[in-house]
Amino acid sequence: MAERSAHLVAISTPPHGEISYRPDIDGLRALAILPVVFYHAGIPGFGGGFVGVDVFFVISGFLMASLISGELDRGTFSLTRFYERRIRRIFPALFALLAASSVAGWFLLMPAEFAYFGRSLKAAALFASNIQFEKENGYFDIGAQMKPLLHTWSLAVEEQFYILFPLLLLAVHRFARRYAVLVLGALLAVSFAASTWMLFRSQAATFYLLQFRAWELLLGALLALNAVPRPWQPRTRAGLAFAGILLIAVAVFTFSDRMLFPGPAALLPCLGAALVIHARDEWSSAGKILRSRPMIFVGLISYSLYLWHWPIIVFTREMTGRQLSVSQGGLVIAASLVVATVSWRFVEQPFRGHASPVARKPLFAGAVAVVMAAISLGAYVAGNSGLPGRLAPDVQRVYASTYDESRFSLPPCFADSDTDGPAVADIRAGRLCKLGIEDASKPSFLVWGDSHSGAMAPAIDAAAAQVGMQGLFAGHSSCPPLPGVQLKRGLTDRCGRFNEAVHDLIVSRHIPLVFLVAYWPKYVHDAEMPNQGPYFDPSVPPPVEDRSQSVVETLDSLMAELQRLGTKVVLVSDVPEMGRYMPEAVAKAMMEGASTDVAPPFDYIEKRQALSRSILARAAAQYGASIIDPLPAICHDEHCDAVRNGLPLYKDADHLAATFAKGLSALYLPVMTDAHNRLAAAGVL
After folding, report:
1. How confident is the model over 214-265, as pLDDT tens digits?
2. Are 210 and 218 in contact (CB under 8 A)?
3. 3 state SS of 435
4. pTM for this prediction
5. Which of 249, 267, 324, 471 sits most deeply, having the most CB atoms within 10 A of its CB?
6. DSSP annotation string for 452-487
């Protein structure tokens, strides 16, 4: 995953008399929420602040199990009363946040972003946003940093747990009370093992889905059931509390969003939280810090602070058009604390406890009403493509380039993952989308590459049609056409299967001409542009570190083999990267009355492309390949165009809009004409 998403849940103190109040747990909440807020606000040093969610999952499991098991033992447990407490705790601040975010989104989000918001609004109201965001973790998904409701995934995990866990404890209490610890311990072990196993197959699923997070909540539940003997010696309790805080601090200050997480790495903050909860320390320095008034206060407002801080960050970035500076991050934190305090006092508190003026029946009726309203609004926004009618007609026309893509960038022609696009067997059998004319019996060429091949395919398609040739298209997201290339975690195997199948097709069909098209700068530098997307900043130098060894070796091996087979290779240099999402950047510039000349400086693009262009040039010279360079068609007189004829040239930051790409067919006509003549002379056509 490109960055760690917003994540945290804070659970309120249960009413007095049901379980004893633990001020140290409110302090532990503060110890979790503050690093999360600092991490999201971009404050240096808090690279592992995202572990706050794990701390809160442990707290939640402990409090819920304590409450439910205590009432079961007393014979007073009621599912209706349990869910009433959850509604009183969760709904008021959450749906206030959803309403406020909907208003802000109407004015600040572009249609594609607002459509994503609509889907997440509907999912958040159903407490299924973790499932929604796991599904949205695709290649062309908008960045996590642009989703105001991303953080609701963790509420969904907890609410799903709250639905199942009381039923589990009820069943265990009735049929296997003596084995409650063994049952929960076994479930914990299964969930942890599944999380560890799935981490290497789908980090997104491990991160978002309940079954892979349940072990963290069950760890707290086991503490509530006294699975571990309680320490009584003050020194022992003080040592446990200090060790727990230390483990959490190590995770906060040493973890980063580049590591495999959660899985086994989540043990550190989870065990830290468990130690603090189990210690019940009152008198040591660690205990006094947790029980201090500032920490308790932050713990009390932690739920509202969690809810409000992330949308405030997202919408602030939308307004400024860039990532937050440290000073801006500090202001956002201060604003979040103020808003959270107001929310806690005037939104949360009136619904809390037995003294609340809101009775049970109107509470449930109101809950159903706000859920249905949020679902309806979310479905309407998503179903109408983010309501582009909010924009002026000329701005709508520009922004429509976001959706200007050909069939070669979409399934079934293009593979965005292992579950869509042509299967490996289809590739080997040549059951691929065709380019050029339709009536030829045997393909004369193949276009092979990643998503940039799909974006460039309309140009090759048009050129092939003009000269009367037919070809096949094989494209897969994030997979350069290099069998055996070493890529980032998880991609090597997936791309390996795809590339080997394409290679086998070329060999078995004796395809005479192959176009290799890819996002070359990304692979030779192992990095995209800095803050690529809505927050791109050309004052930040482009990544130019040479990490091309695997690319060079696999390209050399492939070119040598294709030369031996008699297959002619055409290397297509990459288009200039724009950094910003062009339709959005141009549309916003028009709305603000600013210049639409938003492409990066030419020397910036030159630096970024220098290494990949030199690698392709050497390979072409060594193996007699042709090179097609689209850069001169986009840049001239040391200036690159973002807009022509009033429309953006790109559909996002680095993929050409299909309409403009089709106009580049002249670049491919010489190669196509030469290939056509050679094949005709050989009697192949």
Report:
1. 999 999 999 999 999 888 899 999 999 999 999 999 999 999 988 999 999 9
2. no
3. strand
4. 0.87
5. 471
6. HHHHHHHHHHHHHHHHT-EEEEEEETT--S-TT---
